[in-house]
Specification:
single chain; about 325 residues; alpha/beta; Rossmann fold; seven-stranded parallel sheet; two-stranded parallel sheet; binds uridine-5'-diphosphate
Length: about 325
């Protein structure tokens, strides 16, 4: 699918009703694809995609990607039409969501990835794996380049997500070698924006909703840990650029501007016009100390880099909540 878009081709988006998934579906529809969303709505929401039905080119299969009959259910919708790509964004992704579903998260990354790869192979379609900065764990290299192997505790609480994604990368790469799979791997860093679930437990959602309610923002630990936040429209443009490229191997897709959680709280206070009040809580187990992508590969090979600064992105997120 490099170059010209095949009009009428399907792109299957597993996890299309989720936060990033729904924005990806929207962007693919805008580029002329038909989109089939596979989602079991365990963390994704119908309301994220309801508005896409009006396009007439959006279909939904409500199904867990580990289901044995997944391929048949997909075939029943796509019929004989070409499938350009299968994008795997299905998984609980916020720490509280995956910690509440440890076994399901491991299954989605392993069994679910295998099922989606076999659908891609069966339809001669490209496979896009949504991997994560969590493959780097609590990184000993900073910023993180794709060549870094990571520092993950294999039996820590977070391992259900980290190791599932690492396994998914291993499986995808093994299929590239053994089955000729045409694969792309995106390592997605912290992303924020409209449609994040208010109770997903991530830091941006917590801070924004707490500050809007006039509450103190819950800072875990001393708040000196860092993250690099990418606005969702930038993230999706990066995913689409990767999907349309010839770039093999993992590519970091994230915003390299790095903030401490205290700085994030200050930014949220500024956007909402409130004095930030902080409520310090214990640091979760194995919480990475720092995180920032090196995006040289994405810049040079995809010609992509984020456009939206943190304050602007937070304003857009707050505006979308005000509009609800
Ligand atoms: N965090 C925080 N307050 C919150 C939620 C999270 O200080 O209410 C911290 C968390 O400990 C981590 C960072 O914010 O250091 C990012 O957490 P998040 O859950 O958003 O994603 P992660 O990058 O850990 O997957």
């Amino acid at each position: 699918m490099t170059g010209a878009i095949q009009p009428d081709a399907w792109v299957i988006v597993a996890g299309g009703s989720g936060f990033i998934g729904s924005h990806l579906c929207e962007a693919l529809l805008a580029r002329g694809y038909r989109v089939l969303d596979i989602d079991d709505h365990s963390t994704g929401r119908m309301s994220n995609v309801d508005h896409l039905r009006a396009t007439g080119r959006f279909e939904l299969v409500e199904c867990d990607v580990t289901a044995a009959d997944l391929a048949q259910r997909v075939a029943a919708v796509v019929g004989d039409h070409p499938v350009a790509a299968v994008a795997h964004l299905a998984s609980a992704a916020s720490p509280p969501a995956y910690l509440a579903r440890p076994l399901e998260t491991l299954a989605v990354g392993s069994v679910g990835t295998e099922r989606l790869i076999s659908i891609a192979l069966g339809h001669d379609a490209r496979f896009l794996l949504a991997s994560t900065s969590e493959v780097y764990g609590d990184p000993l290299e900073h910023p993180q380049r794709e060549t870094y192997w990571g520092n993950v505790n294999p039996i820590g609480e977070r391992s259900v997500y980290d190791e599932a994604k690492r396994f998914a990368e291993a499986l995808t790469t093994a299929h590239e070698r053994a089955s000729g799979l045409d694969a792309r791997i995106a390592r997605i860093f912290n992303t924020y924006g409209p449609r994040m679930q208010p109770d997903d437990g991530r830091v941006v959602t917590n801070f924004v909703h707490q500050a809007r309610r006039g509450e103190a923002m819950t800072v875990y630990g001393d708040g000196s840990q860092t993250r690099s936040f990418c606005f969702v429209s930038d993230e999706v443009e990066g995913l689409i650029a990767l999907l349309h490229s010839d770039v093999r191997g993992p590519v970091n897709i994230g915003n390299p501007m790095e903030f401490t959680m205290i700085e994030l709280a200050t930014a949220v206070g500024e956007v909402l016009g409130v004095e930030p009040r902080l409520d310090h809580r214990p640091l979760p187990m194995d919480d990475p100390r720092v995180r920032r992508p090196d995006i040289t590969r994405a810049r040079e090979l995809l010609g992509w880099e984020p456009q939206v600064a943190l304050l602007d992105g937070l304003r857009m997120m707050v505006d979308s909540l005000d509009a609800d």
